[in-house]
Amino acid sequence: MSEKLRGRQIEISWPDLGITVTADLDDRNPALADALWESLPYQSLQGHALIAGEHLYHVAPIPTLLHTPHSTRIPDRREAPNGTVFCSGLQHLGIKYGTLTEPMPATPVGQIRAADMPALLEAGAEIWDAVYSTKKQIHVEVRRAGEQGGHRIPRLRATDTDADRLIADISAETEKIWLTPPAELDGLHQGVIPSQAGNFGTVLPTLLFVNGETRPLGYASYGGLVRAAVQDMPMASLAHMARLLVGVPAEFLGYCGLEKLWAFTQRFLDVVDRLDRDDFYAVTSQMALYINCLGGWNLHLYPWETGDHLRQQGATAGA
Question: Residue ranges of the Cucumopine synthase C-terminal helical bundle domain (predicted)?
């Protein structure tokens, strides 16, 4: 049984639902727990797993989650107790509230108190309905237990003038869209596509491609570049990998409507060859947070109910 981490508790609250639960942080991954604790309070758009089962997650505004090492990894999160709280290298805070189907390793940082499990189950059901059907935007607030809530987006710094200006612009845009749908994504989901991407007036294929490109760009490409910078990959190799990984998907997403993302990417690639390690880390970390925020909105806005008539064999329609 894990020890509580110096008596630290966090409250995870969904004001839109009138539900708050308390979690005890423990000693299984103290570096991750420290990163979470030091970032509090914050707010985010609450999401729900779409193919993995009864699991809640949201993008946490904690750049260091991308590279903070873990001490303990559960080989198969399906076996974790319900109510386990995780911090992920995908920049997520997650909570297992029921049955999971995906045998994925995970890094726990705490546990929801047993008395709060009924409330957590209620929140899970409401959030699933919002993500899958109603599109109600449910915000989550994570704060130190007994303390005031709040919200802030970290703004990193660079010594290179152009890089620092780029970081400021990315940070400002991230702040703007963190709790409000990005105008370009909102328009896209309403069928407003200036480039007319989508054959013969269709919209759903474009939405699918945007979702499919945005998530790996944030999770794998920028997350990988941040980790490579921290792990001392040579600077020439970092710049080369950045050019290989981020330009093509960002240009495609710009064509589909994410013009700000493409503009930020071009500015990054314009300066990447002259950045030192700290500046490279700062720009890629800020971009990762921005793109992961876009990814969260994609997952919320996408019309998943469009495929409600397609069900796995043996599944019931109401499942």
Answer: 164-301
Nearest in space to 63 (alpha carbons), one of 238, 278, 298: 278
User: Helix H segments across the chain?
Assistant: 30-39, 117-129, 161-177, 183-189, 204-216, 223-230, 235-256, 259-271, 277-301
- Cα atoms in the Cβ-side hemisphere of radius 13 Å centred on 261: 32
Q: How many CB atoms lie within 10 A of CB 311?
A: 12
Q: What is the mean pLDDT of residues 179-202?
A: 96
Order of strands, edge to edge, in the sheet holding 84-87? 42-45, 139-144, 4-14, 19-26, 108-112, 84-87, 92-100, 53-59, 47-48
CA distance 150 to 148: 7
Residues of the chain with CATH 2.40.100.20: 4-144
* Contact present, 273 and 239 (Cβ < 8 Å): yes
DSSP string, 7-39: EEEEEEEETTTTEEEEEEEESSSHHHHHHHHHH
Report pTM: 0.95
For residue 217, the tally of other CB atoms under 10 A from its CB is: 27
Q: At residue 59, does pLDDT exceed 80? A: yes
Q: Is the pLDDT of residue 1 over 90?
A: no
Q: What is the CA radius of gyration of the chain?
A: 20
CB within 8 Å of 258: residues ≥ 6 apart: 184, 185, 210, 214, 250, 294
* Separation in Å, CA 229 to CA 86, 88, 158, 266, 279: 24, 18, 15, 20, 10
Which fold does the domain 4-144 belong to in CATH? Answer: Cyclophilin (2.40.100)
Distance of CA 240 to the CA centre of its chain: 26
Beta carbons of 287 and 169 less than 8 angstroms apart: no
